[in-house]
Specification:
With 110 residues, the protein is α/β, with parallel strands linked by helices. It is built from 2 helices and 8 strands. A hairpin with a 3-residue loop joins strand 2 and strand 3.
């Protein structure tokens, strides 16, 4: 089973038989049934722009996979990633690909 729900601008929530995956949920309202679910939850934040990231998402107190430019240093359960990283979290294998914004951030910092 895989379902996908659009949550404003760039935000999507994917639900599988075991997981709920939040992608760039910065605007809109998260339906309560996702929050109340007993399934494993992971939040993905592609980059720091306000239409992809809202610090309020940390209120869910779930595992967060975030680009290095997301200002969440010191927040528990945040794993920072960069292009080409592969990480394993619970039974997920996560391969990180670059994006236009991430590439710009990298060039800006070098």
């Amino acid at each position: 089973m895989l379902t996908c729900e659009y949550i404003g601008h760039s935000g999507f929530i994917f639900e599988t038989s075991k997981h709920i995956l939040f992608f760039d949920v910065a605007k809109g309202v998260i339906p309560q049934h996702y929050i109340n679910s007993d399934k494993e939850k992971t939040i993905f934040i592609s980059h720091h722009h306000s239409h992809h990231f809202n610090k309020n998402i940390t209120a869910l107190k779930e595992r967060i996979i975030a680009s290095l430019d997301v200002p969440l240093k010191g927040v528990p359960n945040v794993f920072f990633v960069m292009e080409s990283d592969t990480i394993y979290s619970h039974d997920l294998k996560i391969n990180v690909f670059g994006s236009t914004c991430f590439s710009c951030f990298h060039e800006w910092n070098t």
